[in-house]
Design a protein that fits this description.
With 710 residues, this protein is of the alpha+beta class. The chain has a five-stranded mixed sheet with strand order 8-10-11-13-12, covered by helices on one side.
Length: 710
């Protein structure tokens, strides 16, 4: 009876250990999951085996036997997973599921009546009659799982990737657990001896407890934090339970005496609600008390983060920033030395407290390879046997206890190097805080490096800029001289060309009017083309003269009262023959409400002609060009809308620049100059107006202007 009760207690403790590890969200997820499965299997197996030994009911005994035999085979399977996780050997989910098939098969055989269990004696004897062949198969699966796990531990331990090896305790725990548990619960039942099966879970408990010690000892989770949290809940519940018993005793025995059942029910319900509301304040009280007792020498996490944020925002000078953070972390985490190794272009820099040992660049490159080969771990401890001649020796030579890689976008930019902890070693709480700090620190380091790079670039560019400025000044002076020569040439050439062109235009006009004899229809058409070309040449020369005047500051506006509607009508009539020759037509209705405006008639007439002329050249044959003039809200608005080639969106912003022409316009009309729209904008701006422009490539354009009525 006593051994059976001890078996139950051992099972409950194993489940408790599994629950503690499960509640800790550590970075070693595979190790934690495998241990929880192992310790949980051991705990449940012990509990159901103990229940079988204590419960007299045949029905319940049969259920308990099925469960503990199924769980008994789950123990070596979870041990195999733990061995792989302990050695940091990655195994895919498919392989894990496949390895579970023997357990599933044996569970089905156990569940079938007569499959592995013939008869169960739930009386005083507490025996199970087993099918020999099935039980031998069961034992073989058990040995297979255990053998594979041990083989991995023995053959791979010398090259283990894990950093939590503590082989003597692990080996002793496994020896005690599997030898004792296997003897009492595998070998003896094979020969029909069920008298000592209660001893097996006690030996298995030694294994789960020993491995728990190794996990806690090597910092997979903060055992102190878990203990403190457990103590807080226990004290809170004991306090509220004591209050409940005291109040109930005083009320029912000293104040009210014995009351009826309904009164007791209401009183209990009300007291329970009150105690439930008091639970959180009571727990907070014990939180403060236990923190003062257990964490007298530790730090406040919120204060650490707040101070670090102040440091990070106080400066962006890399050396000053890293020095202040190293000094602060050394004081708060009780680290003997703290330093930061940072890659800087093809060089490196190391900054920290005064007693640091400089990390050689070759050793840093070796660390890079190690970190990448081991899946970018959050921290390096240097405690595994596999790295005795590598990581452990490197860390020992630099007197380091912890290295935190600084990784951004899968690229290592440096390391946070921590010396020996002057308390009891670094806990998982320390590791989590350093991990959070590293994320903020990486951003600060990148910003500081970027600033330094800009400073270096500025320093390098200053001399180059000075030399380039001198060269540019000389080039600019030469360009100014060339520009003046160009303006003089354009002005002179334009003046000289106007005289012969005026004569040509006059003679052609006389020929068209028949002053020197009759002309045929074909001859008249050719003369009209020549006349239009000479007119266009005159306009081009006028444009160049205006450009020259703009450059010299002589582009003046000679404003007089003008009827804009009449000017538009005259321009349309003048262009109509040329439009018909190209299969086009203008649509214009002269408005009656447009007032006289103070305008430079010649320049505005040139703008109107330019917009209409462009619409003709870039419109498709057979299309209509819509011209509108209207007076609205203190403005006169003129627009020319065509359905031509339009202007590409990417080039519209440059359209009114001097000598600029759109790509599709150059293809359709190679002889353009690019000064028409430039001058049009200058003329409209000179009248305090605004250019109107809308266009969609391939659909057409709208050009125009809006002038104020004064």
């Amino acid at each position: 009876m006593i051994i059976s009760i001890l078996t139950l207690i051992a099972g409950v403790i194993s489940l408790g250990l599994a629950a503690i590890v499960f509640s800790e969200g550590t970075n070693t997820k595979n190790m934690r999951t495998a241990y929880v499965l192992f310790a949980g299997s051991v705990g449940l197996w012990a509990i159901f085996l103990g229940l079988f030994l204590l419960v007299p009911s045949h029905v319940w005994a049969s259920i308990f036997v099925f469960i503990y035999y199924s769980l008994g085979l789950l123990i070596p399977y979870s041990f195999l997973l733990f061995s792989l996780a302990y050695l940091s050997i990655k195994v895919s989910l498919a392989v894990r599921v496949f390895a579970l098939l023997p357990w599933a098969l044996m569970t089905v055989i156990i569940a079938i009546p007569g499959g592995m269990i013939n008869r169960i004696d739930a009386g005083a004897a507490k025996t199970v009659d087993l099918v020999q062949m099935s039980y031998i198969l069961y034992s073989a699966v058990f040995i297979l799982y255990v053998g594979m796990g041990l083989w991995f531990l023995i053959s791979k331990a010398a090259r283990a990737k894990g950093v939590y090896a503590h082989r003597r305790i692990v080996a002793l725990s496994l020896l005690v657990g599997f030898s004792g548990g296997g003897f009492f619960d595998i070998i003896l039942p094979l020969f029909g001896n069920y008298e000592l099966i209660a001893y097996g879970p006690l030996f298995a408990f030694v294994t789960s407890a020993g491995i728990f010690y190794v996990i806690a000892r090597h910092g997979l989770f903060d055992i102190r934090f878990t203990v403190v949290r457990t103590v807080n809940y226990i004290l809170s519940l004991l306090t509220l339970g004591g209050v409940y018993l005291l109040v109930a005793y005083l009320v029912f025995n000293l104040l009210l005496g014995q009351t009826n059942l309904s009164s007791q029910l209401f009183f209990n319900l009300g007291l329970t609600v009150i105690l439930a509301l008091l639970f959180q304040p009571v727990k907070l009280f014990f939180d403060r008390w236990t923190n003062r007792f257990f964490y007298r020498y530790t730090y406040n996490t919120d204060e650490v983060f707040a101070t670090l944020n102040q440091i990070l925002s106080s400066t962006i000078d890399l050396r000053h920033l890293l020095t202040k953070i190293a000094q602060y972390l050394s004081a708060e985490l009780k680290a003997k030395d703290v330093s930061f190794f940072v890659y800087k272009d093809e060089r490196s820099t190391q900054i920290g407290t005064s007693n640091i040992r400089k990390l050689a660049l070759a050793d840093a490159r070796w660390l890079d390879e190690y970190v990448k080969a081991h899946g970018m771990p959050a921290a390096l401890y240097g405690t595994s046997d596999e790295t005795r001649n590598g990581l452990r020796r490197l860390m020992a030579s630099y007197r380091l206890a912890l290295i935190v890689p600084l990784v951004q976008n899968d690229e290592i930019i440096g390391y946070m190097c921590m010396g020996e902890n002057q308390r009891a070693g670094y806990t998982s709480r320390d590791i989590r805080i350093l991990g959070t700090i590293s994320n903020e620190l990486i951003i600060a380091i990148q910003n500081a490096l970027s600033l330094q790079e800009v400073k270096d670039l500025n320093a390098n560019l200053e001399q180059r800029i000075a030399a380039a400025t001198k060269e540019l000044r000389a080039s600019n002076a030469q360009l100014q001289r060339l520009d003046e020569s160009k303006d003089e040439f354009i002005s002179m050439a334009s003046h000289q060309l106007r005289t012969p062109l005026t004569s040509i235009k006059g003679y052609v006009s006389m020929l068209m009017d028949g002053d020197v004899g009759d002309v045929t229809k074909e001859q008249k058409h050719l003369l009209q083309e020549a006349f239009m070309s000479s007119e266009r040449m005159v306009r081009l020369i006028s444009d160049f003269l205006n450009v020259s005047r703009l450059q010299t500051g002589k582009f003046m506006m000679d404003k007089r009262p003008v009827d804009l509607s009449k000017i538009v009508e005259q321009e349309i009539e003048a262009l109509e023959p040329n439009a018909k020759a190209h299969g086009l037509s203008f649509v214009y209705k002269r408005p009656k409400n447009v007032p006289e405006l103070q305008l430079d008639e010649g320049k505005i007439q040139q703008v109107i002609m330019n917009f209409c002329d462009n619409a003709m050249y870039y419109s498709k044959e057979g299309s209509k060009i819509k011209v509108t003039l209207s007076a609205t809200k203190g403005h006169v608005e003129f627009t020319v809308k065509d359905t031509g080639i339009g202007v590409p969106l990417s080039e519209q912003a440059q359209l009114f620049g001097k000598f600029f022409r759109a790509t599709n316009a150059r293809k359709q009309r190679p002889d353009g100059t690019g000064v028409g729209l430039f001058l049009a904008k200058k003329v409209v701006d000179g009248h305090h107006g605004k250019i109107i422009f809308e266009s969609k490539e391939g659909k057409g354009s709208t050009f125009g202007f809006r002038l104020p009525i004064k």
